[in-house]
Amino acid sequence: MRVLVTGGAGFIGSHFVRRLLAAGDDVVVLDKLTYSGNTANLPLDGIEFHQGDIAVAGDVERVARGCDAIVNFAAETHVDRSILGATDFGRTEFFGTQVLLEEVRRANARLVQVSTDEVYGDLEAGGEAREDDPLRPSSPYSVAKAAGDLHIPAYVRTFGVSASITRGSNTYGPNQYPEKLIPLFVTNALQGEPLPLYGDGRQVRDWLFVEDHCAGIELVLREGASGEAYNVGAEHDREHPNIEVAERILELTGADRSLLRRVDDRPGHDRRYAIDTTKLRALGWTPQKDFEEGLRETVAWYRDNRGWWEPIKSGDYRAYYERQYAERLARATSV
Fold first, then answer.
1. How far apart (Å, rounded) are the C-alpha atoms in residues 308 and 320?
2. Cα(134)–Cα(120) distance, rounded to whole angstroms?
3. Are 98 and 56 in contact, with CB atoms under 8 Å apart?
4. CA proximity to 263, closest of 194, 183, 172, 182
5. Catalytic residue check, 118
6. Which of 50, 177, 182, 288 has the smallest count of CB within 10 Å of its CB?
7. 173 pLDDT exceeds 80?
8. Catalytic residue (choose from 59, 76, 120, 141)
9. How many other β-carbons are positioned within 10 Å of the β-carbon of residue 160?
């Protein structure tokens, strides 16, 4: 199969590219190379790489020729950045998805839209979101993702295209851009910098190792039904509040607990995500890596690959970090 992976130089996308290569597929990558896209994540000698924008129809049509499928990872991904006022979220997530659907419609190809569990919004303790539940996004980022998702069933019904959605839970692992909670806390701990914990730290996320996430996406690409959404989450190993994750990172890095600082929570912060993965498990998928093993492996990767992330944590990243955390850390309290 010849597959176009959009956003393939990012975190999850680059792991997916490697997975396809291992399976013997021909891989084309299209990436805009914004702040979190990094060609160092990719085996460039094994793929066809193009820099471009999924919201530009000419860019997509130029690189998608001859492709049997498109898997769309391209997104502005961070809730904090969307709250700060980034303006590209709707353009990439909504309009870019429509451009891709027009391409698969023209070429009679297939699309897998990689989405997020955040489109379901906050869940009460004990509940699990299922694929047919209402979408209740609560941040500018998750609104943009939900809007992109809504294109899929519409194009399947109206134009008969072949397209599916995956909704993954919070994903972690090697070479994740260090703005998300786990890589942020790991790299800060390794540098002796504060770990800024939002609010009471009792927010619960469903932590999924990146290779397990990619395995679920690949299964949907090859066997998923058109017009259907599939949740991809750890499910049975997920009730890990952020404060417990932070404390375990301190233990694994050997950093002092005094680095853990309680800062003002972000606006509209969802308390808990949890998704039911019965539908994907019925296709034969199950996560292989428990959270403790995955976190140890992730910490070890960042410890051994400072040359990858230390240059990132300067320049534009530093400006973002100061904007997001400087005032919060000035008011921070001990945990």
1. 19
2. 7
3. no
4. 194
5. yes
6. 288
7. yes
8. 141
9. 11
